[in-house]
Design a protein that fits this description.
With 386 residues, the protein is α/β, with parallel strands linked by helices. The protein folds into two domains: 177 residues, Rossmann fold (3-Layer(aba) Sandwich); 195 residues, N-(1-d-carboxylethyl)-l-norvaline Dehydrogenase, domain 2 (Orthogonal Bundle), CATH 1.10.1040.50. Helix content is 52%, strand content 10%. Helix 4 packs across helix 5 and helix 12 crosses helix 14. It is globular. The relative contact order is 0.09. Bound molecules: nicotinamide-adenine-dinucleotide. Nicotinamide-adenine-dinucleotide (NAD) binds next to helix 1 and helix 4.
Length: 386
């Protein structure tokens, strides 16, 4: 069934994500109304877009004429009342349920019944949908930072979302040049959920005195082929942001042991050591694992075993819960996180029996239910199920 192409989009929140999403939509040819409630924030967002467009010209990626056309398609707005006629709203306001729900309820009143998309990282789409008063039109479009460059979008629907709205949102995201994965509403959605063991198992190794951050980071990058080590990644993202995602998942699951936050992160946040943005986190400013000594081969193998086994186990739980299809999960971990391969491929390379044995050994020594093996993994493996 064909749909008319979306011509006018409202983007709510002109911060890091909203400004990038507005630029992306305008680049794809849509007219955009960019709306922010805070004085100065709109100018800040437009400034961010301007700087990004200038860099594109400098790099030779866009011509002056293309950039001028993008700029002309973005118009500022200071209230939802100015968004009359939009066909799609994408909200990227701060991660506060009441704020987002109130905004969606106001947008639901607009004439033309626009699709209402949230870019939330951790709030239940179903909860937002119910509070909006327009549940069939509410869905999640989860972009990654920076939205202009990251190729993945998670498309999250609820049992009440109108399938026509889902297909129209998918067509729009694809028009933005994104690869879209269908994801069930739930803690961490897909990518944030399946990436959790990368951080949490690493923090666990640090808590136990099993290995140091520089050793774990080196092994993950040099032996595992991952783009960044978990500790340098947490420093880049912000330890407070990483802790907030984990805490929200843990709370929403009523205490799933695999998602239990680490006291080390809590202590870092309490001390104001948030990572790069605060001048230091796991690494002091200007330092890196690259200057640290090599890791003994036995320890290196044991570190990577723990990381890989827990990534595969989380993916197995996610697949059994129907969070996404096997191929989407595999694709999302590669294009969303730049992992060298997806969990089914890790399972093939490592061997399912070996992964189960690693987890069983961890259970025997730690007696921590976070190491319980997913029935799907013990039963046949994720590669077989995908
Ligand atoms: N930053 C990331 O890496 C990232 C990645 C994926 C998803 N997200 C999600 O995107 C959303 C926005 O995150 P961000 O980092 O861009 O936040 P931000 O703080 O940079 O920007 C939020 C903007 O929303 C504005 N705002 C607040 N109330 C508003 C209202 N009622 N109407 C219009 N504008 C309003 C604020 O003034 C601010 O400019 C959050 O839900 C976050 O979880 C963030």
């Amino acid at each position: 069934m064909g749909h008319r192409e979306i011509g006018l989009v409202g983007v709510l929140g002109a911060g890091t994500m909203g400004a990038g999403i507005a630029q992306l939509c305008a680049r794809a040819g849509a007219e955009v109304l960019l709306c922010d409630a805070a004085e100065g924030a709109l100018a800040g967002g437009l400034g961010q877009i301007e700087a990004s467009l200038a860099r594109a010209v400098e790099r030779g990626a866009s011509s002056e004429a293309e950039v001028a056309a993008v700029r002309a398609r973005i118009r500022p707005a200071s209230s939802t009342a100015e968004l009359a006629g939009i066909e799609l709203a994408i909200e990227a306001v701060p991660e506060v349920l009441e704020l987002k729900a109130g905004l969606l309820a106001a947008l639901a009143e607009l004439e033309g019944e626009p699709i209402l998309a949230s870019n939330t990282s951790s709030i239940s789409i179903a909860a937002l949908a119910e509070r909006s008063g327009a549940a069939p039109r509410v869905l999640g479009l989860h972009f990654f930072n920076p939205p202009t460059a990251m190729p993945l979008v998670e498309l999250i629907s609820t049992p009440r979302t109108d399938p026509a709205a889902v297909e129209r949102a998918r067509a729009f995201a694809e028009r933005l040049g994104k690869q879209v994965v269908d994801v069930q509403d739930g803690p961490g959605f897909l990518v944030n959920r399946c990436a959790r063991p990368y951080y949490l198992e690493s923090l666990r190794m640090l808590e136990d005195g099993f290995a140091e951050p520089a050793q774990i980071d080196r092994v993950c990058v040099e032996d595992g082929g991952l783009p960044l080590g978990p500790f340098e990644l947490m420093d880049a993202i912000g330890i407070d942001v990483s802790l907030a995602v984990t805490s929200s998942m843990w709370e929403r699951s009523y205490g799933e042991p695999r998602w239990r936050p680490s006291p080390i992160q809590v202590a870092q946040v309490a001390a104001g050591r948030l990572g790069r943005k605060s001048g230091g986190g796991f690494y002091a400013e200007g330092t890196s694992w690259r200057a640290a000594p090599p890791v003994a081969p036995g320890l290196a193998a044991a570190i990577l075993d723990r990381i890989v086994a827990n990534l595969v186990n989380e993916a197995a739980f996610a697949l059994s819960a129907g969070v996404a299809s096997g191929p989407d999960l595999e694709r999302a971990m590669v294009i969303g996180l730049n992992h060298p391969c997806g969990p089914a491929e890790w399972e093939r390379r490592w061997g399912r029996d070996r992964i189960v044995a690693i987890l069983d050994r961890l259970w025997e020594t730690e007696h921590d239910p976070r190491y319980r093996v997913a029935p799907l993994l013990r039963g046949g493996g994720i590669a077989a199920a995908a």
